[in-house]
Write a structure and sequence with these properties.
The protein is an alpha/beta fold. The protein has one domain: Rossmann fold (3-Layer(aba) Sandwich), CATH 3.40.50. 35% of the residues lie in helices and 18% in strands. The strands form two sheets. The chain has a six-stranded parallel beta sheet, sandwiched between helices. It is globular. The mean pLDDT is 92. The structure holds adenosine-5'-triphosphate.
Length: 222
Amino acid sequence: MELPHNLGTWVGILGGTFDPVHNGHLAVAEAVRQALALSSILFVPAFLPPHKLTYGISAFQHRAAMLDLAVADRPGCFVSRLEAEREGPSYSIDTLHTLAHGFGKDVRLFFIIGMDAFAEVFTWKEQGQLLDHASFVVVGRPDHCRQSCGQTVAANFPGYAFVEALGCWQGTPDQGAIHPVAMPPVKVSSTEIREVVRLGGPIGDLVPAAVADYIEVHGLYR
Ligand code: ATP
C-alpha cells in the first residue's frame, strides 16, 4: 500500500464518497485540523460505499482525481487510494486497520465523521473495534454538538466518560478518545451539486475551481 510519507504523527482521516468533493468537506478538514492541532488530513474516498450502493456512483478514478485537485493547494492535505485496493464494500474498520498497521505505533489516527453518521455508528461493521485503531472526531453544529455526541457515546460506547480537562470522552488507556468538534454548518452536499450540474446551473461557489473545471471537462453528472 502506498501512503504519503510527510503526514506527521497526528493524522486526521476523512472518509466519504466525495462524488464530488465540495467546500463543506474542505471546511470540515480545516476546522478539525485547527481544533486538534493535527499534522495532516488524509482524504480516503470509498471504493464501494456500503451505505450508498443504491445510486450510480461516479467511477473511483474521477472521485479521487477531483480530490487530488481539491487538495493540490492545501498544505497538509493528502489523498489515499487504499480503498480501491480491496474487493467489495469499503468498511471503515478495514480502512482503519490497514492504516494503523501501515503507519505503525508512532502515528495517531483521528477518524473524522459528521454527527449524523456518528448517530448511526451502531450499524457499522465491527463498530466496537473502531476505537482500537483510532480516536473519533465528531463534527456537529455548535448549538448541540456535545449534547448529541454524548447521547450516542452513552448508547454505544459503555465505559466512556467525558474528561473536562481534555474536552473529550475517554475509555480505557488503549482505546481511542472521542472528540466533539463544533463547527457552523456549511450548507452544501454532493447530492445538491450533482443536481445543480444536471440542471445546468453554476457550482463555482460550492467546489474549488479546479473541481468545477474537471466536472465540466469530463461531463460528470449530466
Ligand atoms: P451525498 O450528498 O452524496 O450524500 P455528502 O455531501 O454528504 O454526499 P460524503 O462524501 O458522503 O458527502 O461525505 C463525507 C463526510 O463528510 C461525511 O462524514 C459527511 O457527514 C461529511 N460532510 C459532507 N458534507 C458536509 C458538510 N456540508 N458539512 C459538514 N460535513 C459534511
